[in-house]
Each structure stands twice: as C-alpha cells, then as structure tokens.
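Researcher: I've got a protein sequence and the SMILES for flavin-adenine dinucleotide. Could you write out the 3D structure of the bound complex as structure tokens? I'd like something to compare against our soaking experiments later this week.
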Amino acid sequence: MLQLGLRTFVAVPSAALLGIVTAGIVKPRSDLAGHACSSGRSCFLGIASCCRFECGDEGDVRRVRRDQGEREGGHESERERAGGKEMTEKRPTTYLRMRRRVVRIEACCIHYLSHASKTKFPTGREGGGPPARRVDGTVAAQRSYQVQLPEEGGVEADEAQGSKYSDDEDVARCLRSMVREEGWGALYRGWMVCLFDGILLVAGLVYTMLDKSVVHRDTITCSAAMVSSAAHAGKAASAKDVVVIGAGPAGAMLGANLARLGVNVDVLDERSDKTSTGRADGIQPKTLETFKQMRVLEPLLQKGVKFYDMMFWHSDASTSLRRTGRETHYPSPDVIDVLEPYMLLGHQGMVEDALLDDMAAHRTHVTRNAHFTEFNSRSGSIDVSYEDSAAGSTLHLQTAYLVGCDGAHSNVRKCMPNTEMVGESKDIIWGVLDGEIDTEFPDLWSKTIVQSKKYGTILCIPRERNMTRLYIELISTGENEKITKAVANQQFVMQRARDIFAPYKLNWTFIGEPSPTDLILANINSSEEWFGLYQIGQRVANRFMDDSKRVFITGDAGHTHSPKAGQGMNVSMHDSWNLAWKLNLAVRGLAAPALLPTYEAERRKIATDLIHFDHEHAEAFSAGDPKKLAENFATNTRFISGVGADYSDNVLNQPLSSPAITGDCRPGKLLTPGKVTRYVDHNPVDLQLDIPHLGQFRIFMFCATVQAFEPSPTSPSFLGRVSAAASASYKARPRPMSPQDEFSRPERYFAASDLFTFGVITTQPKDSFEIADLPPLLAKSRWTIYLDNVPDMDTKKMRCADKWAGGVREGEVVVVNVRPDGYVGSVARWKGTADDGRHAVGWLERYYGGFLQADAGTKISAKL
Ligand SMILES: Cc1cc2nc3c(=O)[nH]c(=O)nc-3n(C[C@H](O)[C@H](O)[C@H](O)COP(=O)(O)OP(=O)(O)OC[C@H]3O[C@@H](n4cnc5c(N)ncnc54)[C@H](O)[C@@H]3O)c2cc1C
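Model: Sure. Here is the predicted complex with flavin-adenine dinucleotide in place.
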C-alpha cells in the first residue's frame, strides 16, 4: 500500500500535492503542503499517477503523453521509497485541453491517508472517512459529505479556491477516458468531501491502483452545488470578527494582514478564481517595501520585471518619431529615498497570488463564488448576506466588522447609507493591450511614452514573459471620426498603436498572457482576454466608513482614476494596510474610539490627493507636450513612488513637540531607510524593516551612550496596563505561526510586550557596553539593540541618528514612536535626567492613551 512519509511530502512539488482529480475542483495549495512539512506531522495526500489528455476538435479525448515516473499498479517504486526525488523531477500532471481553454489537471489519482492511523480512506460508504486533521495534528471540526452523484450531468469544478469550468461535458468525457485508457478500473462513484481547516478537499481514489478492487465503473460526476454548499456551510458555522468582501489586491492585502495578526476573518469573492489576465500591473517602491516587511516580495521579484528609466518619444506633422527625453524614473535618494528605486511589473494575479499565499500560510482562505448582496447592522453585529452562486442559495454570516474591497462597482458601498462616489468621468477611451511585440523600436524595456500629435499617445510598460503592455489613447483623428467602445475593437486598437509607432513596425508574437499550460501545449496564439477598454472616471467616495464605524470600504470601492501612473493597485493595498492593524486592535478591545476614524481621515486624504494628481497627469498626457509631461513626472515623483503619501496631524500623528528634531522622522510620514548593525548577532540590517510586522508599535530610542537611560517608572502605567491587556488577548487568540516563522522566530521581537517593540540605537562602540547594562525592559529586548556604525551602507551615507533625528548629543535620548504600518507617529528629544525621564513617560502615555485603551479589569500581570 502506498505510504508517503514526510520525506516524500517534502520532495514532491508542493503544488502537485493537493490538486484533486477533476479539473480544478481544488486548487493546488502549496501553503498547506508547507504547513505539513514544517509541522513534521501531517501527511494526508499523495499522488499516484498522471497522464495528459487533449480534447480533439471533435471533442474526442485522447491521451497525448504519459509521464515517466508514474506509479504502476499501486506498488511503491524504489525511487519513491528513496524520497520521491523522481516525482520532483517528473511532476505528475494531466492536461486537458477543452475548446480554446486549457485546463491543467494535476494529480489524477489521490490517495488519502489519515496521518494518525495511516489507514486507507474508506470509500463508497455514507459519510465515511477518518477525521480531518489540521496541520498541527488536532482534529478539525469535521464535516464530511458523501456526494451521491447523478448518473448523468456535468462535472462542475467549484471550491473555495478552485475554478469553475463550464465545459463540464468535456471534463466528464475526459474522466471517462482516463478510466478506460489508463485501465485504472474506475473512478468510483462516491467522492469524499470534507472540510479541512476551512479548505474543501474532494478526495477521489482510484481504488484499483491500491488493492485491485473495482468499486464502480461509472462516470464520475460531481454536483457543484453540493460541493459548494459543503464549503459554505463550514464558513457559516461561526460568527466572525471581520468579513472582507472581495479578494482583489485590496481584499487580499486586508485578509493577509488580518490573518497574520490572528483576527478571525472571512474573505468572500464572487469570482471563481484570482485575476488571470490584464488589469493592474505596476508595483511602486513603497509597496515593494511593504511587501518586504510582510516577507512576500521574493516570489514577485523572481517573476516580475523592473524598470528604472523613462523615455519620451514624439512625432508631429513636421518631424517623424524621435526620442525627446530620457529620465531616471526614481532618481537620487535626495529626491526619493528608497531601498528599491524602481517599479516592478507583473500582472495583478501575481500580486494577488503572493498575498493569498501569505493568507493561506496563516490559515485563511478565500470563499469563492460568494456574491455579497447586502448587510444589516444590529447592535454590535452585522448580518452579511451573500449568494453561493454555484448552489444558487442565499447564506448569512454574522460579523463584528465588514469591509468592502469589492471594486469600483462596490455593493458594500451601495449598501452604506448616504455614501456615493463624487467626481467626473472623462470622454477619452483608452485601449489596453498585453502581448509580446516584435519590433525594431529600441525602448521597449523602459517605461516609454510615445506621443503622436495626430494619432494620440501610447504608454509602454515592460512586462513579465517578454511582454509589453500598451496603453493606447484613442483620440479622434478627423471631424468625422467618433470613437466609441463599439468602434474600438481589437483590430482598431492594434492599428492605432501601429499608427502612433510609425515608422517602426509593430508585430505581436502573441497577445494575451500565456499561462504555463498554454506554453506547454503551445500553439495558443489568441485569447479573448487580451485587451480591454476603459474610460477614466476620477471619483472618490464621500465617506469610507459608516456611522456605526463598523463598515468600511477600501481600494477601488472608494476611489477610481486613470491607471497610467500605476497607482490603483498600490493605493488600494495601502488602504488595507492602513486599516488592518487598526481593526486588529479594535477586535481585541484595545482601540479607543478615536482610532478607527483615522482610517477614513488618512486614506480619504490620499485618495483625494491622488485624484488631483491624476487630473494633472492625464492632462499632461493628452496635451502632447513632452516637456510638460516630463516635468509632471518629476514634480510628482515622491507621490507616484508611494513614499509621498503623507498623513495630516491627528491623534496618531502628533505635531512635533520639539523644534530640535531636524531629521527625516516627521509625524505622518513614512520612515526612510536607516542602516544599523544588530548588536546581538552583528548583522547589518535595515532598521525600518528589521522588526517583523505583527501589528505592534515600535518605540525607537536614539542615544549617544546607553548610560543616558535612567530606569523607567513601572506600573501602574498606562503602557503597562495596555500591554498586559494585549498579552491577555494574544494569549487567548495568538497570531498563527506561518511555516517561515519556524525559522525566523518573530516572537523574539516581543520579549518585553506584545504591543510594543522597544529599540535602542546607539553610536557607542559595541565593546564598551553589555546588554545587561541597560534598564531591564530594554535588556529584555536584546534583538532590537542596534549600533549606529554603518553610514557607508546607507542610501545617503548617513548615520541613522543623523538621518532620522538630526543627530543625538551626549546625555540625550530621542524617542520615535512608529505605528505598525511604518508611519512615524510622534518624535521628541529628551535629556537623560530623571526629570526629563518622567516627562518622557508622561508624553508616551498621553500619546498612546489617545487611541489605545486598556482593560482595567485584567488580572494578567504586565510584562512592562
Ligand atoms: C476592467 C478593469 C481593467 C483595469 N485595468 C487596469 C490597468 O490596465 N492598469 C491599472 O493600473 N489598473 C487597472 N485597473 C484597476 C485596478 O485593477 C484596480 O485599481 C485594482 O485592482 C484595485 O483593487 P481592488 O482590490 O480595490 O479592486 P478589484 O481588483 O476590482 O477587486 C475587487 C474584488 O471584489 C470582488 N467582488 C466585486 N463585487 C463583489 C460582490 N458583490 N461579492 C463578492 N465579491 C465581489 C471581485 O470579484 C474582485 O475580486 C482595472 C480595473 C478594471 C475593473
């Protein structure tokens, strides 16, 4: 019998582990595999065999390839016993090509093993099966369903993370052929469906492979409604802290952050899968830094492309097309000081993927095919209604907070009383086209603006997979020409692009984004999703929050504008970045009433700034004046990069109390890069990123010598009480560990408090003090004692204290309060005397007392 141990589990490509038999019923979940590996305990799915099928033109199905290394007759091969290396190289995959759509079926044959008993999954019995287990080995609240399958009917793949294919007859036909041609005996009639930690598993066994017993020889079909209902039933079981509507960039960002902070969140999306083509594609420097802070940037860097410069081209009646300018997109650190001074390009689905993977690593998954319809607020609770579109039923969820990340046509916004979009819509239509271009034009790998006085403007953006995105302005070229969406079809937009680029030739090698499966099967040279049209609407919602302060909107639900400056996806994610930590504190009862309204105040300001910028930017684009356009970019570089998204004074961003602070640390602004050496292991690190983001505040103290610290007063302080309340809350509901956390151990940054990480940055040489010389609270924080001794590694070649605080003199302490989202909250300079120490404590207490609240009744003793 098949026994897959941990080693095999690790060795088999994770994406292949959880793919289930029929086309995309369950999307491969690498996160779960990762959990299983790192816990060292779970092993519940393995893969036996694979092959590749194609549907011919007549709809016939034939096997076109049978991978090597597949399992035969249910016997464990030598190679697999040796650790499954062969399976790593020969990834078991079945491809099914249906009409013009290619569906990859992974893991044709799944063996379900209970990790505890290692018993084979009993099939063909009503409600049978071992208990579903979580990755930590505990038994999950189990639901199991025996899906009785109709003799006739379609296979519709559908699941919380899966895809839905309408070509169900083809799938069914393919499955039948798999049974016959492969001699597998049967795909049995009954499928076991269980909810595993919120993930729906549909485990199908090719039973003859295991013990030669044929169960049934019928066609496998699976009622989408039943599968879907099972998933939704599990979701609805308990009340939620937060329900997020929409899993685009804004929703995925919110879901990922709430999940990592330990908030009980449900994310619903009406789509059956993430974005696969088109839409947004630009990640700005500030967002790159945020992704670094979340530790999700690496996969994006591997796939995306970077651009550092901008080119300007122009043609008019008297001069043919020529380059008129060449600029660095993000110039010196004096203009914009960032670690990643470029824009990263990759389609929206890649970004969603990175965030959804992170969400899944923290055990939260999107419920798909869930169309939000309305909400009703009652005291302290919100009733959310949504349609399970596969089952055609209406379902309900109870939640404390609801966030609409449901895009420009947001239903949540429409349900919020007295809420509307304010602004205007422009007449000009733009075409967007993604594809690989064959041309002699020399500047396709920079951000390039090509302006033709007669035919309009094109913005070219280099993209992954050798593609280029073209944004093509569709202007009228003569009195009789009226451009409407009906006129602007694919051929029209391509011809207009050729007119603007003339005399350079444009030929598209392929149009649309080829999926990996497309590439494997080749000959895919067209797609219906290759281009889009849009009309600019520059609008901002009049409110981002309802009167109860329990319903919010983020992203496109609150603002729409042109996509030319690459802002939409970035600003949308930063809305959610801003809201996530505030909601976490609210859910935990640690937020004073003043905290949540700062979301609306801060992010509506940014949305309004964005609309003003976008207005000017669009004008400069259409004006056809290359100089004016270059100037517009230069003037707005900080804003475009994201680092210029400054917040106004409010309870979180306190005006400077001391005029002696002359550095970069300004309340309401983001931290700039600061390079220091970590005392404990002597690693040079980026101070603004070193401490993992887990919803806590950072209190940085700069000093020339650590002797400047007097022992600080302890309880009964407000910080002590609120910190105790936070400890109690995180003890009751901890932040979930991701597989990576096993290695990085973020808890070492919480030695003193769950709510505050204290950091000391000193210019004192390492060999002149020990950590034990510091007051107890700081001595506990050994991972956040830093030496300010690597100015040569800084972006501006400055010491961190000089750069951030304008220097620190002997006997002084400069305190910088940094919010969980990386914005500076308040800054002050103090002398190291006992008197000033008392004032400093009072100042800290007033600052945090403005937006936090402590549970006075807590019995847990303060760590502070
Ligand atoms: C057609 C189109 C083309 C675009 N092209 C570009 C471009 O070329 N360049 C660019 O920079 N930006 C482009 N954008 C804008 C960019 O995609 C957005 O700025 C960005 O995606 C905003 O993210 P979001 O999460 O706020 O919204 P979205 O990405 O729109 O995500 C909203 C999510 O909510 C879900 N949803 C909606 N209604 C419901 C409901 N009732 N119930 C459940 N789920 C729901 C949707 O399925 C979707 O997943 C485009 C947008 C659209 C709509």
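Model: The first strand starts at residue 45 and ends at 47. The domain at 675-849 is CATH 3.40.30 (Glutaredoxin).
Researcher: Great, I'll pass this along to the crystallography team.
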